[in-house]
């Protein structure tokens, strides 16, 4: 580590405006603009692509998580939370495929895959809530096509299927860090 970085003391801000309270503040979540390290998630029924990035610098695709049906939803969500904890992430960013007439903020305009992604994000939040890891939704329009084009350029060969999803997750992180104000914080429904 360079000497000039050793001298800098970074303190994570404490925000009392968000989080859960029951007389005293238990959990604190960072607002999107203050997220330092995040895990990007490209949710799919066959593969869940994941990538990690610190402040948007060089998002790194990780090994994908094997998908499954609705029965496997809790296992997949727990796998995502486990990776986020292992990589010491402040937040989990889930890509949401917004339709052309739709909006990130209007659930009624979601496609079928959009509803799946939104439900998955709520499941991830229910599991990550106790670890103070926030969950955000980001418009992921076109990331899978961009990831496919990138893999075509580098010639990824036969292992393209799962890699495409993880590269898409890296692109989702790039989108998030480019404009964190456009992200939507996922909140537990019963609170």
Molecular structure report:
It is a single chain. By secondary structure, the chain is an alpha+beta fold. The protein contains 5 helices and 9 strands. The strands form 2 sheets. Strands 3, 4, 5, 6, 7, 8 and 9 form a 7-stranded mixed sheet that branches. Helix 4 packs across helix 5. The longest helix has 19 residues.
Secondary-structure map:
Blueprint: H1 3-7, E1 20-21, E2 25-27, E3 37-42, E4 47-54, E5 57-61, E6 65-66, H2 73-86, E7 91-96, H3 112-128, E8 134-139, H4 143-154, H5 160-178, E9 184-185
Parallel strand pairs: 3-7, 7-8
Antiparallel strand pairs: 1-2, 3-4, 4-5, 4-6, 8-9
Helix pairs in contact: 2-3, 4-5
Helix percent reads: 25-40%
* Pattern of helices and strands: HEEEEEEHEHEHHE
How many alpha or pi helices? 5
Q: Residue ranges: pLDDT <50 for 5 or more in a row?
A: 1-27
Alpha-carbon distance between the termini? 43 Å
How many strands? Answer: 9
Strand content: 15-25%
Mean pLDDT: 76
What best-fitting shape do the alpha-carbon axes yield? globular
The Cα radius of gyration reads 17 Å
Helix and strand content put the structural class at: alpha+beta
């Amino acid at each position: 580590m360079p000497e000039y970085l050793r001298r800098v003391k970074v303190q994570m801000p404490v925000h009392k405006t968000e989080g859960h309270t029951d007389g005293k503040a238990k959990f604190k979540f960072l607002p999107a603009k203050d997220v330092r390290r995040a895990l990007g998630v490209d949710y799919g029924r066959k593969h869940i692509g994941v990538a990690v990035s610190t402040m948007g610098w060089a998002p790194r695709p990780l090994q994908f998580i094997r998908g499954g049906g609705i029965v496997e939803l809790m296992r997949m969500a727990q796998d995502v939370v486990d990776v986020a904890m292992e990589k010491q992430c402040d937040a989990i960013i889930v890509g949401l495929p917004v339709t052309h007439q739709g909006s990130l903020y209007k659930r009624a305009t979601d496609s079928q895959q959009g509803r799946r992604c939104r439900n998955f994000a709520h499941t991830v939040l229910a599991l990550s809530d106790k670890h103070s890891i926030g969950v955000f939704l980001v418009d992921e329009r076109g990331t899978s096509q961009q990831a496919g084009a990138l893999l075509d350029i580098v010639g990824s060969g036969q292992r393209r299927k799962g890699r495409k999803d993880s590269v898409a997750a890296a692109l989702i992180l790039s989108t998030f860090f480019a404009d964190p104000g456009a992200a939507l914080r996922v909140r537990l429904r019963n609170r």
